[in-house]
Amino acid sequence: FAKLFCVINCIIISAKNMKILAIRFSAMGDVVLTMPVLKAVLQSNPEIQMDILTRRSFQVFFKHIERLNIREENIDLEFKSLTGLVHLFNQLRKEKYDLVIDLHGSLRSKILCYLFYLSGVDYTTIDKGRAEKKKLLGNIQSNTKPLKHTLERYADVFRKCNILVDKNHFESFGFKSSQIEKSKIEKTIKEHIWETSIKIGIAPFSQHQLKSWSIERIQKLIELLVQEYNHRIQIFLFGGGQHEMKVLSTLQEMNSECIHIAGDVFNLAEQIEFMNHLDVMITMDSANLHLANLTQCKNVISLWGPTHTYLGFGPLILDKNVIIEIPTSELSCRPCSVYGNVPCSRGDHACMEWISVDKVMEQVKSVLP
C-alpha cells in the first residue's frame, strides 16, 4: 500500500515541479555511486528539482551536477543526536519538499523520513537486499548469479515513485571538473614534466582494514614497478587522514623522485580530475575504485578479499577493469562479509594474503605499454 500510495502521489504532483530531497550520508564509496543515478534522474526529468543531504566532505562529488542543490548542513557535527535530527528536520521542512528519497536506509535517515511522513511528506527508502546478500556469504558457487548492483538499487528507489531513471546513461555520467581544476592539473603535469611518463595511481586503503593489502606488499609492488619501468614511471599514492598520510609518507621515502602523495599536490576535487590522466589505478575494494571508474582513467586494477563483486559493489565499467581475487573454489569462505568489517574466521586473512605481488605485477604489465 505504501508503494502504491507513493506512485499515485507522484503522478498527482508530476504536473508541477517536483522538489525532492535525496539522503545519503556515508560511506564514501556508496555516496560516489549515487552520483550517476542522481544525474540520470535530473537529465531524464527536467521538471524535477533535487537537493542532496550528505556529509560536507562529500559535497565535491555533486557540485558539477546541474539542478542539484547541495545542502550545507554539517550533519556529523551538529545533528548526530535525536534532538539534532529534529532540529535538522525543522530546517529542511521549510523547503517544502514533495518527496524524500532515502538512499541510505540508516537509523538517522529513517528517523528523518518518519518526521517528514508525520508532516505529510511522502518518502521511499532503499531496499539493500540484506537477506539475499547474507545468503551468499561463504556460498558462491559456479552457477551463482550476481545480485543487483548498488546503482540499480538506488535507481529503484526513484522508480518506486514512477520517476524515470534510464540505466543506459549510467556509464556516460562521469565527473566534470571545473576549468580551474583542469588548468591546475595541466599546469602541474607540465611543470613536473609528467606528460610522457607512465602515471600509476595506487590507493592502498579501504574504509575497513580487512579489505586492504598489507603495506609490505604495497612496498614490494612499488619496488617491482620502479625496477620494471625505471625513469619512465611516476607513482601517485592516494589516501587521506592522519594515519594514512603517515603511511604514504613512508612509502614515498622509497623513491621521492618518482613517488608522490596525491593529497600533497592536489585537493580532493583536483585528485579526481587527475585520475583522468592515469594510465592505471591500483586500488582495493574502496571508494577509489568507483572514483577511477567515473573518470577517464585508462585502466583500473582492484583487489578483492573478504568481499565479492557479486554482492553488488563491483566496478561500473567492466572493459577497463581487472579484478584480482582468490576464486571461491579455492577459498570457499569468500565472501565472509558484505562490507569487509568481520574478523577473519580462519585467522590467517587468506583472501588477501594469498594474492601475490607477482600476480598484481603481471596484471599491471598486461595493461601498460
Observed structural traits:
15 helices; 6-stranded parallel β-sheet; alpha/beta; 39% helix; 14% strand; 369 residues; 5-stranded parallel β-sheet
Helix content: 25-40%
Q: Please state the overall shape, judged from the principal axes of the Cα atoms.
A: globular
How far is it from the N-terminal to the C-terminal residue, by CA? 57 Å
The mean pLDDT is 93
Largest sheet: 6 strands, parallel
Segments where pLDDT lies below 50 for 5+ residues? none
Please report which band the strand proportion falls in: under 5%, 5-15%, 15-25%, 25-35%, 35-45% or over 45%: 5-15%
Order of helices and strands: HEHEEHHEHEHHHEHEHEHHEHEEHH
- Label the structural class: alpha/beta
Total number of helical segments?
15
For the secondary structure, the number of strands is 11
Task: Please compute the radius of gyration using only Cα atoms.
Answer: 22 Å
